[in-house]
Amino acid sequence: MRRTLFNEDHEAFRETIRAFIEAEVVPVFGEWEDAGHPPRDFYRKLGELGVLGIEVPEEYGGAGETSFKYQAVVSEECARAGVSFGGYSVHVNLVLPYLLKYGSDEQKKRWLPPFASGEMMTAIAMTEPGTGSDLAGMRTTARRDGDHYVLNGAKTFITGGVLADRVLVVARTSPAAPENRRTGLSILAVDTASEGYTVGRKLEKIGLRSSDTAELSFSDVRVPAEDLLGEEGRGFEYLTHNLAEERLGIATSSYASAAAAVEFARQYVQDRTVFGKTVSSFQNTKFVLAECATEVEAARSLVDRCIEALDAGELTAADAAVAKLFCTEVQGRVVDKCLQLHGGYGYILEYPIARLYADARVTRIYGGTSEVLKTIIAKDLQV
């Protein structure tokens, strides 16, 4: 079906990203997976290309674009090539919205120029050992001491945590109110060079192996009070504000992954022969690809509608939950079927379908598990 989401500017941007991926990422992507992250200089290259600063206001060195469509293009082109940009999506899709909405003018002047250039990479630290999705149950604390906060605690599953220069750490700055456990949380933008800040293990994952995921610990880390993001005690409110965009980002990359899987499988079955015939000539192959293409088309239509809603300021939490739930489930089914069409080669990591398969599993977990999303959707239905 004809797609109307993108205009000429988006397509020109797509060509730039596609050429950059072919030249700078594809030849070395295996090395990134072995290392567990891209080299630090790669993010500076993204900065020079203008990719990190697309949504950063012009006065801070960015392009000042407000549309999510440019990020959708990046997701689609990375999936198309079977690669990723490491911690890029956390930096741009998760952290930047917090800085733009809750950062003071002084903070924006300090942080946004290096953010856009790639000189300062960022991450966000919410999840703690033993708490999972229960953000209100976090135990990391930040005690006010004069013009500083003293930070103590630990975080885990922090994407981009190994290379980050500044991390948005969610901590409890006051005890929770008995009637509302969500009170008393704040967000501190912590300099990772601070004394007492420690990067622990780089966690080994079954997928997303070019994206560093780390454990972090804080032992009496002194954080200047001017690095508090927004107002003290409103952290939980801030976190929920950005969940819709975060979940749409995951839905977009999941749709793109499914679309890429269909294309990889389509090419493979046309080249591969079995019993003297191409695999594509068998009716089962045709039917499987037809099923997958249909699911991908449905996911794309949903994603496109949600992107338009986000740009218009109309995307609700329930809308984003629907998009993430549907697209990640489609991704899981489609990538699995496309791997099956590859036969034994689908299980070999040199084939991109194998990486897509390993990467796909986590999308039904992070950013809100499928079970949590069903709860949100059901609540919206008033059942």
From TrEMBL:
InterPro entries: Acyl-CoA_DH_CS, Acyl-CoA_Oxase/DH_mid-dom, Acyl-CoA_Oxase/DH_mid-dom_sf, AcylCo_DH-like_C, AcylCo_DH/oxidase_C, AcylCoA_DH/ox_N, AcylCoA_DH/ox_N_sf, AcylCoA_DH/oxidase_NM_dom_sf. Residues 7-119 form the Acyl-CoA dehydrogenase/oxidase N-terminal domain. Pfam families: Acyl-CoA_dh_1, Acyl-CoA_dh_M, Acyl-CoA_dh_N. Keywords: FAD, Flavoprotein, Oxidoreductase. The keyword Glycoprotein does not apply. The keyword Mitochondrion does not apply. Residues 123-221 form the Acyl-CoA oxidase/dehydrogenase middle domain. PROSITE patterns: ACYL_COA_DH_2. Its cofactor is FAD. SUPFAM superfamilies: Acyl-CoA dehydrogenase C-terminal domain-like, Acyl-CoA dehydrogenase NM domain-like. One of its GO terms (molecular function) is acyl-CoA dehydrogenase activity. Residues 233-381 form the Acyl-CoA dehydrogenase/oxidase C-terminal domain. It comes from the Bacteria. Belongs to the acyl-CoA dehydrogenase family. This is Acyl-CoA dehydrogenase. It comes from Actinomadura soli. The lineage of its organism: Bacteria, Bacillati, Actinomycetota, Actinomycetes, Streptosporangiales.
